[in-house]
Write a structure and sequence with these properties.
homodimer, 667 residues, eight-stranded parallel sheet, 22% strand
Chain lengths: 667, 667
């Protein structure tokens, strides 16, 4: 028989710690929070027998050597909880420690003893434990504890002994010096990534700078973009995302509407990066200079807008890398570089990197260096193009590297791919993720998808950023639903998810023509040609977008996703959901008519108890889009939505908090 | 910036492995199976981009140095599955390895290429990959692969090239020699404990040997027990569990009905172990000798019955340990040993061990030695008394130690305590666990509890063993429900759980008088006095029990728990559920009237699709208790149960498989 406890450092470590939350893959990946969040940690902690245990949450910022310790409180059923405030952006770790606390056990039993002799013997036991605490204590506590133990040894009157033994203040003093010799600590240290607020709450506007010219026919520049900033700020966006602004390849350049051969004036796709003018750290000469970029970024900042750049790790055939680093590409037996393909489709204008290169370390360094270059230029938001076609270990390493230097950096993963791949990218470090939102249109689809996003296992690490359109995605719903469809998708995006974006001006100008029937590609897509947009067009949605984004800014309920709950409506075209920010009593209820063609009406059934609303007191529904106010009472209320007038209500629910003697009835 | 891939052994290991199942606490504990089981392992495996991956399940028996490898098949949504048969009892480990398979990727793409030039270049790429496989291959395969590559390099006709490139047999040859240089292997090796069949399917009978005498007033012996074996075997039990058979302490011995002071003739509680006659490895002299024990065990075996002993790690004050090992007990300041207590209750007849002793290693060794002693005497089933009052690390170590020597050992945890404590004991190695079954009487309680047991996270490691009564538990339901209550609880126990037990003869003789009103203690409990039972009493349930146990033996559906499913009945007193053994098309449907006082009837609604029953073909319900046969069709059928006649149906559902030309219509 083997020696006892070969795998046990000490058989007297009797406390058990299980099921710590938050937990992503057993601590392999980090949960995500925002600076200032209260991080609530729970664990199952218990021991054998009837002894009392004590549990501590231990946490520290990366780089701190000492742990902070916070006592955990029991929730019942052996579950314990404590929290700490993650004050600053960066990495944290937390774990739990627990031990059998003989002093607490003694006190618990002492309170239940009745016989005098029993109390006297127990007092002596307690005195021994308190003397142990006194040895660990310092200064005044040490003296007090010694005194307490001496009294427990000398007093003989049972009633006096009981009062003495249960003294609250002395117990608190003893509790400060527990015997932790046999404390068990969960071996895993759970990582936590704390981001800045924009990681959780952001409104993105995507535009092609080359279409920003004020005159049709002229190539837009970064300088032209400056003129758009007030327009974008007025709509209420806080992130301006620019597709790649680097030199565009000339070899195998695509023409308008993805034509295989470009005409002489065709500008090419901005995602075909690199030419004689430079690669991923250069600027496309026709857009302007680095100085122009810095100026645009500064002016945007002044409007409350941050520039997000596109990280697209692929090369046009004439990218400088192709000549300088042939080892970073895969070569075909015919002596040419392997272009991107998905047989029988070929993308001869794009060379992917060969991540199985012998020289992978240099390649990783170079690519991380690209991000680092733009970060050193002040860029803190990166939209990453197709991250799922580059190895997961690369992203895990690269994002950690960049965030070590720039902890406020935000990475949005543009991975429209299978669910587990998208989740892996979110786990390994991407701050936000594109979603399947564009293809979720029916009521049951939206309920199922957003319930999964906000309550499924991904809720700890997958932050959805939802887009009704992108330059690649003009959905069938938008193609055929007309203006109401755009409004519906805008309101859904902006109220279902704390982060959303639109590709404009195509979106607010209701651009809806596809390249081919059945295609999700735009006709005359900006991906391949320069467009000129009339931002003053009377049918535009800019004013409505401004109202929606104002509602988001003014209502904390819309600034995070965890509180999202759906409610029944007896009409399959009407969707109703609420979000709340309990700490400020903010509650937003949205009702959307998903049918862009017909008036729909029905009875909404709110779960008033879960919303904290009294069932017998009327409450006011203040529509933040129209300004109208409705008085509702009880759980069931009638809603009718005409897509031509207003396909959605975004209600701030205001409780009646004053009496008739006050002027404003509702808060 | 740090060197790329500090935490990555090679950046070219692009495959990802996640969420391997079965998995208990991330591999910290073992899943449990039975020898001969097909162990189905699944994992999420994927890589970046569009490449094809290959996945292998790797498994080995403890002690084997080499892994067995089984290819995993994709289930869709990046989930992969493979299985192996765990042929023998003992420990196993499994894990998963996956890699980007360039040959498979090449073949997948090759099949989709259309242009001749494209095919020719691709053929050269393929030739290179196949030459790589040839280098790894041996003998004939090597030659064939070299030949294949040469052909791919020389053939120029596109159609011929396509046929050649997609040759199935040659692809299989190349597939035998994959390039696994960059294979990723899940770092965790998941443990699996494989037990013998009785660990999952067992019927226990508990009896006090000292009550086995054929004459009232005489102390029963192990020899007397032999006479009971045919009776127990006739009822169909396969485990005979004896409460402790060791010398009983004399100091502070309890009297009848738990009286504080024993009378001169009182035999004491068998759980107050140890006296001058010896301790945990000795036999109570009045029961007989070690030779008698060996004889009883042998005769039991001949009847298909295994003896289970009680492991109760506590001491009477006069246990030899108390004198020989004072360091294994806790001492009170008054110089006495700390007895068991739960203030204000005191159990002065019991000394618990002090597991925080400095000498804990010697104590662990001694206690494991007790189990080992009885194992060396041929005992392979241990019912462990109150394991939750001894440290978890002790049990994890001790059970592993014993099972290393005696892998067929079975440990039943008698821990009636909080759920997480019970689960921890099951996780750390107990083979079976007592449950809350005795206190689950209402329909919704039974559905909720057994759904949790069979479908909750514990299903991989927590094997319920359910008891309608024990010497400590005479439930209110049995006290007031009369004979129907005993039948109801028997049928529930035996058909809801593959392992169950009764404490007899109290159970089959319908003993129902409590010591005090509101108490679950038996009046004149055998724990403190010798009883004499009339096994021939006409009201006894022995015949019914025999029928129930025969149904269990003859129907594989009742021999495991994973298939349990409940079905609706429109009567809150009627409970309906099914168990199935799909591999042998065995299906048992049980309907129980939970009301022991009134006739109840209702419409049972089976989910025929989930049971694999055609909705339009009648099926036969053969009641295994009464022998009656009913013809049912469709999902809804009527049931009426009179508690006085038969409170339950245990139906074998027989599908109609023959036509009228056959004699027996139903199988």
């Amino acid at each position: 028989m083997a020696e006892p406890g070969v795998n046990v450092s000490d058989g007297r470590m009797r406390a058990v710690i299980e099921r710590i939350t938050p937990c992503v893959d057993g601590g392999r990946f980090a949960a995500k929070r925002i600076a200032g969040d209260e991080v609530v940690v729970e664990a199952d902690c218990f021991t054998d027998g009837h002894d009392t245990i004590a549990c501590l949450l231990r946490w520290r910022r990366d780089g701190e050597s000492a742990w902070h310790e916070t006592p955990m409180a029991p929730l019942g059923n052996d579950r314990w909880r404590a929290s700490f405030v993650a004050k600053s952006v960066g990495g944290y770790r937390y774990t739990v420690t627990a031990w059998v606390d003989h002093f607490l056990s003694w006190r618990h039993d002492f309170a239940r003893r009745v016989e005098a002799e029993d109390l006297r013997v127990a007092a002596l036991v307690g005195a021994g434990l308190i003397e142990g605490a006194a040895e660990r204590a310092k200064g005044a506590d040490c003296t007090r504890l010694k005194g307490w133990a001496a009294q427990l040894r000398s007093v003989s009157d049972a009633q006096a002994l009981r009062t003495l033994g249960l003294d609250e203040e002395l117990a608190a003093a003893a509790g400060r010096y527990p015997d932790r010799r046999f404390a068990a600590t969960c071996p895993a240290e759970y990582p936590l990534v704390v981001d800045r607020a924009r990681a959780r709450f952001s409104a993105w506007y995507e535009m092609f700078p080359r279409s920003a010219s004020s005159e049709a026919g002229r190539h837009g520049t970064l300088r032209d973009c400056e003129a758009h900033l007030p327009y974008i700020a007025r709509m209420g966006f806080d992130v301006l995302y620019l597709p790649p602004i680097h030199p565009i390849g000339r070899v195998n350049r695509k023409g308008a509407n993805n034509a295989l051969v470009a005409g002489p004036g065709d500008p090419g796709s901005p995602w075909a990066i690199g030419s004689a003018e430079g690669g991923h750290t250069a600027l496309h000469p026709e857009l302007g200079t680095l100085e122009d970029f810095r100026r645009l970024a500064a002016r945007a900042r002044a409007c409350g807008i941050e520039i997000a750049l596109d990280i697209a790790f692929q090369c046009a055939p004439d990218h400088p890398y192709a000549g300088a680093h042939p080892e970073w590409f895969r070569w075909r037996p015919d002596g040419s570089v392997q272009y991107a393909e998905n047989p029988p489709k070929k993308y001869q204008d794009i060379f992917p990197f060969e991540f199985e290169s012998e020289d992978w370390r240099a390649l990783w360094n170079e690519l991380a260096g690209v991000i680092r270059y733009w970060a050193s230029e002040g860029v803190r938001i990166f939209r990453v193009d197709n991250p799922h076609t580059k190895p997961f270990p690369f992203w895990e390493w690269a994002i950690a590297e960049i965030k070590r230097e720039y902890p406020e950096a935000i990475f949005l993963a543009e991975a429209f791919t299978r669910p587990k791949v998208m989740h892996r990218l979110a786990k390994l470090g991407f701050t936000q993720s594109y979603t399947y939102f564009a293809w979720r249109n029916a009521k049951h689809e939206l309920i199922e998808y957003f319930t999964g996003l906000t309550q499924g296992s991904g809720r700890e690490y997958f932050r959805p950023n939802v887009w009704p359109n992108t330059p690649d995605i003009l959905t069938e719903y938008l193609q055929f639903g007309g203006r109401p469809a755009f409004i519906v998708r805008l309101v859904l995006a902006a109220t279902l998810a704390a982060s959303y974006g639109i590709y404009g001006p195509a979106f607010e100008l209701l651009e809806a023509a596809p390249r081919d029937p059945g295609s999700e590609e735009y006709l005359d897509s900006e991906k391949y040609q320069i467009r000129h947009w009339n931002l003053e067009a009377p049918h535009g949605l800019a004013d409505l977008i401004a109202r929606v984004n104002r509602a988001r800014r003014e209502n904390p309920a819309l600034q995070s996703d965890a509180s999202l709950r759906f409610f029944p409506v007896d009409n399959e075209s009407l969707l109703c959901y609420a979000k709340s920010a309990a700490e400020v009593e903010n509650l937003v209820v949205t009702v959307v008519n998903l049918d862009p063609h017909h008036v729909q009406s029905g009875w909404v059934e709110l779960d008033l108890a879960s919303l904290g609303i009294d069932a017998h007191t009327p409450y006011q529904m203040h529509d933040l889009l129209s300004g109208a106010r409705f008085l509702w009472s009880g759980p069931r209320n009638f809603v009718q939505l005409d897509p031509q007038r207003a396909p959605a209500h975004v209600f701030a629910l205001r409780r009646k908090v004053r009496t008739e003697r006050n002027f404003d009835y509702f808060l």
